[in-house]
Amino acid sequence: MEKLYWQSLDDYKEQKSNSVIDKKDATPEFSIEGLDESEVKGQSSRRDFLKLLGFSVSAVALVSSCQMPVRKAIPLLNQPDDMIPGVANYYASTFFDGKDYCSILVKTRESRPIKIEGNDMSPLTKGGTNARVQASVLNLYDDARLKNPSIAGAKATWDAIDKEVIERLTKLNEDGKKVVLLTSTIISPSSRALIEEFITVYPNVEWITYDPVSFAAMRKANELNFGTSLIPSYSFDKANVIVGFNADYLGNWLMPVTFSKQYSVNRKVIQDNPKMSRSYQFESLMSLTGANADFRVGIRPSDEAAILLNLYNEIAKSTGMSVYNAPKTNIDISKVAKELLSNKGKSLVVSGTDDINIQLIVNAINTALGNYGYTIDINTPVNLMQGDDEAMDNLVKEMNTGTIGGIIINNSNPVYDYSNSKGFITGLKKVGTSISTSDIMDETALECEFVCPDNNYLESWNDAEPVKGHFSIMQPTIQPIFNTRQFQDNLLIWMGNSDDFETYMESKWRQRLVDVSNFNSSWNSIKHDGVYQIKNEIADQPEFIGQSLMAKKALDKGIELVLYENIGMGIGKYANNPWLQELPDPITTATWDNYLCISPAYAESNDLKLEDIVSINGIEIPVLVQPGQPDGTAALAIGYGRTAAGKAGNNVGVNAFGLINGSTIDIKKIDGKTYPLALTQMHHDMEERPIARETTLAKFIKDPASGNELHAYDEKHNVTLYNKIKYDGLHWGMSIDLSSCTGCGNCVIACQAENNVAVIGKEQVKNRRIMHWMRIDRYYSRDEVNPEVFHMPVMCQHCDNAPCENVCPVAATNHSTEGLNQMAYNRCIGTRYCINNCPYKVRRFNWFEFTNNNNFDYNMNSELGKMVLNPDVIVRQRGVVEKCSMCVQRIQEGKLVAKMENRELKEGDIKMSCEQSCPTNAIQFGNLLNEDSVVKKETKNPRMYHLLEGLHTLPSTSYLTKIKNT
Amino acid sequence: MYNTRVRGVLIKGDKSYSQVSRDVLRPMDAPMPKWWYVTAFIAISAMIWGVWGFYNTITTGIGTWGLNNNVAWGWAIINFVWWIGIGHAGTAFSIFLLILRQKWRTSINRAAEAMTIFAVMAAGLFPLIHMGRIWDGFFIFPYWNTRGPLWDNFNSPLFWDVVAISTYFTASFVFWYIGMIPDFATIRETTVSKVKKKIYGAMSFGWLGNARSWLRFETAALLLGGLAAPLVVSVHSIVSMDFAVSVIPGWHTTIFPPYFVIGAIFSGFGMVLTLMIVLRKLYKFNDYVTDGHLDAIARILTFISLIMGSAYLIELFTAWYSGNEYELFTFMKNRVTGEYTFAYWSMLICNAIIPQFFWFKKIRKNITLVFIISIFINIGMWFERYVIVVTSLSRDFIPATWATYSPTWTELAVFSGTIGLFVMGVIAFFRWIPTIAISEVKSVLKETTTLKSFTDED
Predict the structure, then answer these.
(1) Which of A23, A49, A66 is the last residue of a domain?
(2) Is A242 helix (H, G, I), strand (E, B) or coil?
(3) Which of B66, B69, B155 lies nearest to residue A835, judging by beta carbons?
(4) I want to staple B236 with a disulfide (CB 3.0 to 4.6 A). Which of A280, A785, B61, B260 is the partner?
(5) CATH number for the domain harbouring residue A575
(6) Is B151 in Cβ contact with A794 (below 8 Å)?
């Protein structure tokens, strides 16, 4: 042992004690020498160690893999013939909600509807849809839907309800007490027949039709002028000059899908035959139609009649009709009159104002112009909007006097949307038996004793006759999810008919179809096509009975209130649909709220700005300064302020149904108070950049490339050292005609439904984080009093020289061999460099987990709501970037179908979701390498340009300049 | 040439070698001063808040920040570039001055290098935390994987960043550490604490101090210095390419690499100045870090500030001369005028105008003023990055998408957390590592002490 030196006594002691231990245990620790056999065995050997290691590693692996959630995938024992997992089925059906009609195809996957497409075979909607139609599939999976019928708030069985209701109805019938069947407009001939039959069983039943938005004046005017109360059908496609007065025919007026289709026909300009309709819009707010009109004039609502009467007089002078005394107005209509006169029989004047005087003048003008029989057809009336205001007002009176014994309310919500809601509630309380068939516990259902939840329209049988002779079939695409029953079945059971409505309807169709011998096959083909048309006999238009026309002088001071329907929300029926709540308004780009639109001049003189709060008639509401809002008017959207719509829709905005359209209001600024509004666009000026390019028809005729001069320059100057990418066979491209696009926002919802785009709520929209893969940019130009409006759909441009691709450090976004700029979500680590470097700013980041997150309590946070998700599209995780994939799942599907059929892909085999839904066919998709494809042809169009082409990003998406007929 | 003693006295007080060791090591053995605890408390509090910021970001998402679809980078990147810039000084200082044989660097380089290390550590946190899926962050490294033929995108400046920063950090750290080995050995030899002896003994790698060791040491330092010198230039050039490679107006400029490198050295020297004034004050190192040193740094800053100013002017000129409307808009309507004028003019005034006061000797001599100006430089350089990142993104090509950006509490927490980390690192360095390179100071001691101080001569 070495000699020990120590420094202190402590050291010494320590060394000493150590040496004691050393002596005690002389055997080296890690030697097995000197140990007996058993002791050696007790030690772990190297082999034991490896065994142990192996066991524990595999045990850990096993245990940790047990943490994986167990997902059950049970194959069908008996697979139905028409259901192949992974293959979509399409069923023709009809969307009708009491207001909007649309013939549709329902895409189902594994027997659940996931997407709505337009039905190409419909001569009315021609494959178009609108945003509410697109979003309606989400209503099917709404958590707010009632799961069971109830009596006085308590869950009940259908048997109990039937017993009680039949008893009561019989009793009321015996007592001779009146029972009212209050419905929204019903355009189903079978349902109408059923209701009439119901009334024969219960003669004490009176059927009242009520719509929150009324066309009563128009019907009345036509009754006076033509002898029948009706709404004629319009042909915007046959009109060279269209003059609208507060009729938002591209947005919400009557049949916007049909009218958009018709309108766009004459707005597509062909180089060889450059013709285009011209549209004038006189309106009291900035509507979608006004935004698209060639000439837009802002007017006071009170001035409309005077302007129309002046217009009439101007026309009557030259057609020799009687001239009436018209008050003066500041609006010069001589140009419009001249234009209309030179297009007799090829023009159209419409007004959306519910005022009999105005409608009479409009009829007189159209008669003077000889438009009946050409652009307007009395003989094929539109069956929509049958609401009878007088009957409704009487009903409320009668209810309050206690003469009504019972009420059955179907598909209408007067407690929310009737102007005298309080009166209706007090009246309803006096009604002994109140039955609501609402599918959710809405404001009216809450006041009713019996709630018999209706099926969703995707679970129902029905038919529709929106326009005389045009039929459209509604068929169920899923079994009722909940314990609900269709309204018509209720009636059948309550009148003692043992048939279900499907059988009933079939029997009615058996009567309608002439060729009954072959009924089953023709009935099947009708159901297959979804539409059926009976040719109307060509008949002369009924004789016009002139009425005396009058107009009051317009108010020259005060603010007149204009109530309007927002593009997404409409009348507020789908307030609980988060897709629609989050759809940016095409004009204001606001989401999740309504607001008072005021004119810039008023805002300036009253020191009001965006988000300030004002009070009108005791309602506090934020302000939005709307360019183009005429002076002396303020506009407010109806359809908001629901209190019993569901978690997404409750208390969004304020309810404007209690206010009167056209009334004079007092706007009081509430100082120091603001309310956040979630707008998706804050800058409205194009900054003189060549983004949305435009020209006029006259300039276009002279030079088809007018307005697009920069394109030639950029093409010439865009040089590169690198070779262009060579594609073999397929190079997908898109073409967007700015001339056709009306900016309706339908494609945004179509894209959202197709691609599982998350809803993020108002706060995050305000933070400018909206997830929509495509957006509609909206620019104003010219003055703020009456600006020109440009709409431009922007989605991923799929650049061949994509700036996003070369900056991604992990190559998560890359270029496909077919020209697609694709995202590998699994690879993305979320550096967001691509977002920065995208000049179009079309990339979206998942700022939060939007699925299964209570902070984003929308459809992706509910087991039911998630049923709407498209199984072909992955749901993106928090932290990854996403963007338009050019519906790559559809491309793949199209290719597979072609492969199965052993043929080449054809033009039109694959349609993008936005393209398919577009009511004006503004979007085209196809193969740029196919010389015959539309997109390829459009690239040679002198109007064609790429967005920001000076950057040499080489987009696959092209735009066509907007042509205005000014 | 080598005999021209322009600098005069570098270490004042006619010190002996042992006195130098004693002076520098004194604070390490002295009882912990009160200010140390106070600073540590504040720094750790900031770090705890920062940890909350990190936690919030990682568990909830980047949505907790103020970013949006248009401005997808914000404070995280601003602060990243700012810290990287600061992290430039140490190495730039030591290496460039080493190569240029500027002996006066010896009293400062250790602290400057320490600053570099902590600043780069602080900077390195931002690319991590700003990833949307931090748990998949390893994707960014080029490693052979089972995920199919997936490889990094070598075109991406972000990948270059990863390589450049990790290389720079490693090189800086090794350079700093090697420089400390003789000093650790000095502590090992002088300390009485056994624990310290063990630790510093291990850290000194058995340094013997013989001639062979010194020869190797000098060679290694020079070699590493030579290797690291291009890194100083490359790191910030590459960071600048995060911007310059893009198409965004205001980013897409060829001037960025030199402009960023100069800016980085500027901000780094500014921070060195700030730190040295504090260090000198706290440890009474006035004999080592003399007024002459501060004066020299101030003179350098004046010069760099002129370069910065001309870079700003060239940027404006290029924007105008290019005739590119987007570029012109960004510079003229969104920086010089417009919503972000405050940031732009703060940057310009702090970086290009205020340092010009250093032309006046009186101001250079007034340490308080020097300190204040150094702080202004730090602020100005932060604003420079703010101007670059935010103004360009918030208003780029398509006006419809324009959006503004403002940071949230979470971003503030993350930033202050990194400041806490930096401060904590610096004061730990003050405490446990010789703040002045003893061996190097000794090398210039005898050469200069007897002469007149280079600032005293006039």
Answers:
(1) A66
(2) strand
(3) B69
(4) B260
(5) 2.40.40.20
(6) no
Q: Tell me, what's the pLDDT at A903?
A: 92
A442 within a domain of the structure (yes/no): yes
Residue A474, number of CB atoms within 10 A of its CB: 25
Please give the tally of structural domains in chain A.
Answer: 5
- Report CB contact under 8 Å: A768, B246: no
Residue A27 has a pLDDT of: 45
Nearest-neighbour CA in chain A from B319: distance (Å): 16
* Amino acid at residue number A127: G
Question: pLDDT by residue (tens digit) across A53-88?
Answer: 888 888 777 666 555 666 777 777 887 777 888 888
A317 pLDDT exceeds 90? no
Whether A481 and A589 map to the same domain: the answer is: no
Tens digit of each residue's pLDDT (9 = 90 or more) over B294-326: 888 898 899 999 999 999 999 999 889 988 889
Burial label, A196 (beta-carbon count in 10 A; 0-12, 13-18, 19+): exposed
Nearest CB partner across the interface for A689, out of B72, B140, B325: B325
Are A375 and A403 contained in the same domain? Answer: no
Nearest-Cα residue of chain B relative to residue A760: B63
Is B441 a domain residue?
Answer: yes
Average the pLDDT over B138-149 and give the result. Answer: 78
Same domain, A790 and A706: yes
Instruction: Kindly determine whether residue A803 and residue B247, on different chains, have CB atoms separated by under 8 Å.
Output: yes
Q: How many domains does chain B have?
A: 1
Whether A599 and A704 map to the same domain: the answer is no
**A844–chain B Cβ distance below 8 A for any pair:** yes
Of B66, B139, B399, the CB nearest to A829: B139
CB-nearest partner of A829 from B131, B395, B398: B131
- B451/A223: higher pLDDT: A223
Same domain flag for A342 and A408? no
**CA separation (Å) from A775 to A82, A795, B174, B346, B376?**
37, 7, 52, 36, 43
How far is A888 from A867, CA to CA, in rounded Å?
21
Q: Is residue A312 located within the same domain as residue A412?
A: no
Task: Quote the ipTM score.
Answer: 0.90
pLDDT by residue (tens digit) across A246-300? 999 999 898 999 999 999 988 888 888 888 999 999 999 999 999 999 999 999 9
CB atoms within 10 A of CB B278: 15
Pairing of strands A559-565, A633-638: parallel
B157 part of contact set with chain A, CB < 8 Å: yes
Domain range for A662 is 566-679
Of chain A residues 347-376, which have a CB less than 8 A from chain B? Answer: none
Top residue of A810, A814, A846, A850 to mutate, by most chain B CBs within 10 Å, is A810
Quote the tokens at residue A258: 């049909």
Q: Domain for residue B354, yes or no?
A: yes
Share of chain A above pLDDT 90, in %: 44
The answer to whether A560 touches A632, Cβ cutoff 8 Å, is yes
Q: Are residues A708 and A756 in the same domain?
A: yes
Domain span including residue B326: 17-141+232-446
Same domain, residue pair A705 and A808: yes
In a domain, A230, yes or no: yes
- Give the N- to C-terminal CA distance of chain B in Å, as an integer: 22
Shortest alpha-carbon distance between residue B78 and chain A (Å): 14
| B276 lies in some domain | yes
Which candidate from A777, A837, A846 shows the least CB-CB separation from B247? A837
Amino acid at A597: C
Pick from B30, B70, B41, B12: which is nearest to B393 by CA?
B70
Structure letter (DSSP) for residue B333: I
In this predicted structure, the answer to whether residue B249 has a pLDDT above a threshold of 70 is yes
Partners of residue B132 in chain A, C-beta under 8 Å: 828-832, 845-846, 878-881
**Residues of chain B contacting A682 with CB distance shorter than 8 Å:** 402-404
SS3 B289: coil
Domain end marker among A510, A533, A556: A533
